[in-house]
Design goal:
The protein is built from 8 helices and 7 strands. One of its GO terms (biological process) is DNA recombination.
Amino acid sequence: MALKKEKGIVIQSMDFGDSDRMISLAGEADVRMKFISKGIRKSKRRAISSTELGSLIEIDYYDQAEKDWKSIKEINLVNRFDTLKSTYLGTMLIFYFCEMIATLYPEGESHPFLNQILVGSFEYADQNKFTIELLPFFKLRALANLGHFPTEFFCHTCGESVLQKRSAMFALETREFLCGDCHTLARDQLPMIRFFQTILTHRFSKLMELETKKEAVKEADLVLNQFLRSITGKEFKSYFEFYKTIGDSF
């Protein structure tokens, strides 16, 4: 029975039995799988915070091929993101992002980028105040990495770049970009589409320097929320409380 290591963000956490806890990680190397930390809820030596949603942890675990879950031998807390979790908004942001990734990330697949964007987003929000630009940035980057969202901005009809057109929109039903030269558009979403392109080609720090208009940011987040509903067939449990908590800042 081999002993292996993994490092990642806890995206699911569930009490199991009287003292155990089952977790799932968006990890750096391995495929997504379930891990069980036996006795951690009653342990005086191991921190229960290492199994909280959003915690960055390192684990040593037994690779038991015959089991649906792996037993954790050692678990170490790398970053709890205490400042972020000290506020209700920060806690809800963690719940929202973790639920989103847990829903989109199938077990048995490996997507190290999801670990990177979770860590980067939580580190930024932990060290800086919350900003709404983080929402469409996180969602679009995650969706594009998983292959759900188109990353080339060409009109479905003429094949030309919509970024060079006078008007364009994203057709949510068909998940295609359309330009104003080929179609009578219900509305012009070109500023939002250019914002999408900026998200996919720039780091978040650079994105913040560009000072995109809030209207484009809000429309981008609205469209991405609609897109998430269309591919998951549901609303995330944390959605309403998270956006209620944002309130007027959004």
